[in-house]
Amino acid sequence: MASKLLRAVVLGPPGSGKGTVCERIARSFGLQHLSSGQFLRESLGGGGGLSRTPQFICQTTELLVLALAEVWLHPCCLPASHSHFCAAACPGFPRTLGQAKALDGICELDLVISLNIPFETLKDRLSARWVHPASGRVYNMDFNPPHTQGVDDLTGEPLVQREEDKPEAVAARLRKYKDAAKPVIELYKSRGILYSFSGTETNKIWPYVYTLLSSRIPPILPDEEH
User: Fold this and answer.
1) Does residue 225 lie within any of the structural domains?
2) Which CATH number goes with the domain that contains 23?
3) Residue 28's domain spans which residues?
4) 184: closest CA among 66, 102, 88?
5) Residue 36 — very low, low, confident or very high, per pLDDT cuts 50/70/90?
6) Any idea what DSSP says for residue 31?
7) pTM for the full predicted model
8) Going by DSSP bridges, is the β-strand pair 32-34/111-116 parallel, antiparallel, or unpaired?
9) How far is residue 36's CA from residue 129's CA, in Å, rounded to a whole number?
């Protein structure tokens, strides 16, 4: 029989490293990391795998989460061979108090991981981001640049900077996030399920996230693997 399910979300402003943290959680704890595009492709393809596999749901949209979270998080979706189920909605879902209350109607969260990164660091990260439009591959000119400046590593096609990642837009995005996220953070803090991690580098924050989750889920990879 499966043990108690673990339901968690990862919160953080744009550029805080939620995607990287989600991928590491997926690898370390044997959970599947899905993007919204992958989820839609598999669901519409009729494979049915999503209803049978424990999911670590990341990088998805509000509507997709609200429409499908009840299926993802319901105990009957968990195979008997799996003892734990961890679901996380990113980027930063729930982003508003209204979304948090909507999520309450679907499930009760066990823990909320909040990534606190200085806004100046986030501005630099986001402003240095370029993407390959066709695939969604993301490059950062500071720490993950393409092999050839301005072009995608795999296709050689031009990279673009999204409007939302241009410096003037980044500051507005971060201000908007801060205002909207404050009551969400306070809500989960009042429930005693909020765990906040601060820093400027994901590699330095990750060991603390790993330790927290290791107290809830048996890891399949040691921390030093990362």
Assistant:
1) no
2) 3.40.50.300
3) 8-214
4) 102
5) very low
6) -
7) 0.73
8) unpaired
9) 20
